[in-house]
Write a structure and sequence with these properties.
- The chain is mainly beta.
- The protein folds into two domains: about 45 residues, no CATH class; about 80 residues, Hypothetical protein (Archaeosine Trna-guanine Transglycosylase, Chain: A, domain 4, Roll).
- About 5% of the residues lie in helices and about 50% in strands.
- The strands form three sheets. The chain has a six-stranded mixed beta sheet with strand order 6-7-9-10-11-8.
- The longest helix is centred in the middle third of the chain and has 8 residues.
- The radius of gyration is 17 Å and the shape is globular.
- The protein starts with a strand and ends with a strand.
- The N terminus is likely disordered.
Length: about 130
C-alpha cells in the first residue's frame, strides 16, 4: 500500500521483484531481500540486488538499430547515474523528431567501463556492453 510516498510491506517473504512508485522515486523489493527491506532510488533506475542497478535510457533509432545488430558494442553517456560494471541498461528506442518512444527496447549488461582522462571527457563514461540474450 502506498500513501504520500510511504510504502508499507507485508511480513510475507517476497518471491519476485515488485516496484512500488512513491512520488518521483520508487521503492523496489527484490528477490532475496530480507523482510521489509527496500531500496529507494530516483526515477529511471532501480536496484536489482547488491550493488547492481538497472537504468532505463533513451536511445535514438540509428543507435538502437546498431546496438541490436551488434555493430555498436558500447554506450557513451554522461555519468550522472554512477554507472558501474555489472549494471543492466534497458535501452528504449526514442524518436527525437516525434518526441515519442517507439515501443522497441533491448537489455544489455555493462561488462567494462572507461572513465579516465584523456580517453573520455570529464563527467562522461564509455561502457562496453553485451546483450543479455546471447
Amino acid at each position: 500500500m502506498t500513501q504520500e510516498g510511504i510504502t508499507i510491506l507485508s511480513h510475507k517473504p517476497l518471491r519476485r521483484a515488485r516496484i512500488v512508485f512513491a512520488g518521483l522515486g520508487m521503492k523496489v523489493y527484490y528477490q532475496g531481500a530480507k523482510r521489509g527491506r527496500s531500496e529507494t532510488t530516483g526515477a529511471g533506475k532501480y536496484v536489482l540486488g547488491g550493488e547492481r542497478m538497472k537504468h532505463e535510457l533513451k536511445t535514438w533509432p540509428e543507435y538502437y538499430r546498431a546496438t541490436i545488430g551488434r555493430k555498436k558494442l558500447f554506450e557513451i553517456r554522461k555519468n550522472d547515474r554512477e554507472y558501474k560494471t555489472g549494471d543492466i541498461l534497458l535501452l528504449k528506442e526514442y524518436n527525437p523528431e516525434t518526441k515519442k518512444y517507439t515501443g522497441r527496447h533491448t537489455t544489455v549488461k555493462v561488462i567494462y567501463m572507461l572513465d579516465k582522462q584523456p580517453f573520455v571527457p570529464p563527467g562522461y563514461v564509455c561502457m562496453s556492453i553485451k546483450s543479455i540474450y546471447d
